[in-house]
Write a structure and sequence with these properties.
Helices cover 44% and strands 16% of the residues. It has 133 residues and is an alpha+beta fold.
């Protein structure tokens, strides 16, 4: 997470992506046992998003933290999760799918996303989200 040269800047002097990275760093610094994240990477560029997905996996692996991660990005949810829960739309949301992600704990952006298992999970979730089961 690169924020070099920004230590003396005020929050309003940081880009939206930098502010988001600072917020994530603040949440991680106290080593929580439970971390709730709602679309935490939405305002980030693709490379930073992937770097932070890998950081989350490292936090989960080393600290044993439980992370509840709300995302609308199917690939992100499969890559970063060990379980994906798809909810029905609307105020009365129900669980439409509860799918374990049985990929290796050691993941990398290129290899993991090219696995047939990754593609199968992504396809299954996409079908449920789009109602084409």
């Amino acid at each position: 997470m690169v924020l070099d040269g920004t230590a003396r800047r005020h929050p309003w002097q940081l880009s939206g992506g930098m502010r988001q990275r600072v917020a994530i760093a603040r949440a991680l610094v106290c080593r929580p046992s439970l971390l709730l994240m709602d679309e935490p990477f939405g305002s980030l560029d693709a490379q930073t998003r992937e770097d932070l997905e890998d950081l989350l996996l490292e936090v989960r692996r080393t600290d044993g933290a439980t992370i509840v991660f709300v995302a609308h990005d199917i690939d992100e949810s499969v890559y970063a999760g060990d379980r994906v829960v798809v909810l029905t739309p609307g105020p009365g949301a129900r669980v439409a799918l509860d799918l374990p992600v049985e990929l290796r704990d050691e993941r990398d952006q290129i290899t993991t996303r090219s696995l047939p298992e990754f593609t199968a999970l992504r396809t299954r979730i996409g079908q449920v989200v789009r109602g084409t089961r």
